[in-house]
Specification:
Number of helices: 17
Structural class: mainly alpha
Radius of gyration: 22 Å
Helix content: over 70%
Order of helices and strands: HHHHHHHHHHHHHHHHH
């Protein structure tokens, strides 16, 4: 592919950057934080909500699953709607809907009402998350500033889960479980005001593009089946007919979706977006990082609370050093290392660091201490994730035809969501099997043996997590292009008639 030269800001076809762009970043970051933390903030509140509303242990999973199913299955549709409706309008609609769904969930008087509110949150989150990233992609056009903005965004994407654990603990202990949902209303109000003031909106000219209805139905069904299949595997096991039935349906629907996209007049997801080597590598890296990231939060949280006896707030505070390291690594990576070395070196390095942190965690025991045994691997993991996420997210949206910036951004969120579903289901199943085998070989099952079995099961999950990161390092090293090989930029600098928002972003080859 030919290498594309940078376009100077303010040159023909590219407007000068808005002076309000940093406030746009703050607005987008708030929205992204709200969506990401909501996947974990409710987890800590579940026991209190269950006691208040009186639902069973078996039904409890649906409070989490309803959100992830709606969010995961509608992401590509949400991204395409932002392309068709305009970023600013879609962003504000997403914020209003998310706030309304959160208020409904906080006021829930029954289990069904809470599950319905969580599903609505997921649906509006699927509209909001890709739009937020698309706004960022089309707002920051100067390469250095773009790197800085994506560093912030990538840090939030990586740290949001840990922030959710801390916030959930504080709100549950100091107020009650309902405030884990009400808090979104206040965040959304700030976001709506910021979007109205700072997000740029330009009227569309020319005919309105059409929505690919068959493609939307196929991919939404595929993603729903995929997320539900893994969620069912976590609770019912891999031998459940529902698990394999939905995972098989997901595979068939994805094949049908790809075949349809090859012949659709207005494809939902042009295959050139994901078939580009750099973007394919970026999406794969986000997915693998999602597997490991959810494993970290899940099992380290279990370990701190059940083995070391930490409270929810103490558990959340324990992740703060990891978040700080993640933010530091994200800024160093995007501002210094990625421009100099490219994602081909930095993403595999981040994978190796994260995998090393996972291996370090396997040494935790019943009598380990936080400062000596838990903190060092969390710092290593934070630095690794901060190296992976911003570089991958920036590469995943670089050079995309701006008509499809929303759906390309949605693929980032889809990759992370699918990775999280795989990580939660697969690692939890492996850990449960390891715990059962340990108890079976150590009789009688005393309290000490049960504690050892739990720690052993976590170690098995960490080893598998390390394996995922090792695979990710090899895959990223093979797929990412070298810095002197231009990114495939089909039509990147050729705006189509009728495209919304602003002119195409300048393209900088890696």
């Amino acid at each position: 592919m030919s290498q594309t030269s940078p376009v100077a800001p303010g040159a023909s076809g590219a407007p000068a950057p808005s002076s309000r762009r940093w406030w746009t970043l703050v607005t987008v970051a708030l929205a992204q934080l709200m969506v990401v933390l909501d996947s974990t903030v409710v987890n800590i509140a579940l026991p209190s909500a269950q006691a208040d509303l009186g639902f069973s242990d078996g039904a409890r999973q649906w409070i989490v699953t309803a959100y992830s199913l709606a969010f995961g299955s509608l992401l590509l549709l949400g991204g395409r709607l932002s392309d068709l409706m305009g970023r600013k309008r879609t962003f504000i609609i997403g914020l209003i809907g998310f706030a309304g769904a959160s208020a409904l969930g906080g006021a829930a008087t029954s289990f069904g009402m809470l599950v319905g509110a969580r599903a609505l949150q997921g649906a509006f989150g699927a509209l909001l998350a890709p739009t937020a990233l698309a706004v960022l992609t089309t707002t920051f056009t100067i390469p250095k500033e773009r790197a800085r903005a994506f560093g912030v965004f990538g840090a939030i994407a990586g740290a949001g889960g840990a922030v959710g654990l801390l916030l959930g603990g504080i709100l549950t202990e100091q107020f009650n479980w309902r405030w884990n949902l009400y808090i979104n209303v206040f965040i959304a109000i700030i976001g709506i005001i910021g979007a109205a003031m700072f997000v740029t909106s330009v009227k569309r000219t020319g005919p309105r593009p059409k929505l690919d209805i068959p493609g939307t139905v196929l991919v939404s069904g595929a993603l729903f089946s995929l997320v539900y299949g893994f969620s069912n595997a976590e609770t019912e096991g891999w031998d459940s007919p529902l698990t394999w039935g939905f995972l098989t349906a997901a595979g068939l629907l994805l094949i049908a979706f790809v075949l349809w996209q090859r012949r659709a007049a207005h494809p939902l997801l042009p295959l050139s977006i994901i078939l580009d080597r750099n973007r394919g590598a970026a999406y794969s890296s986000v997915l693998i990082a999602g597997v490991g990231m959810f494993g970290i939060f899940l099992f380290v949280t279990y370990y701190l609370q059940t083995t070391l006896g930490y409270t929810p707030i103490q558990t959340g505070l324990s992740f703060l050093p990891m978040i700080a390291m993640l933010v530091l690594a994200a800024q160093l990576s995007t501002n210094i290392f990625v421009p100099r070395f490219g994602p081909k070196l930095m993403v595999p390095l981040g994978m190796i660091l994260a995998g090393s942190g996972m291996v370090y965690l396997t040494h935790l025991g019943v009598h380990s201490t936080y400062a000596a045994d838990v903190l060092p691997p969390l710092l290593i993991l934070g630095f690794g994730m901060g190296t992976i996420m911003p570089a991958s997210i920036q590469t995943a949206t670089l050079g995309v035809d701006r008509r499809f910036a929303g759906v390309a951004s949605a693929m980032v969120n889809t990759s992370q969501q699918v990775g999280g579903s795989i990580g939660t289901a697969l690692l939890n199943t492996l850990a449960a099997t390891a715990a059962a085998d340990y108890l079976a070989s150590h009789v009688p099952p005393t309290a000490a043996v049960a504690a050892d079995a739990a720690v052993h099961s976590y170690a098995v999950a960490y080893w598998w997590g390390a394996g995922f990161f090792a695979f990710g390092a090899v895959l990223a090293a093979l797929l990412f292009r070298r810095r002197n090989q231009g990114l495939s930029l089909a039509n990147a600098n050729t705006p189509a008639a009728g495209t919304p928002d602003i002119a195409p972003e300048p393209v900088v080859a890696h």
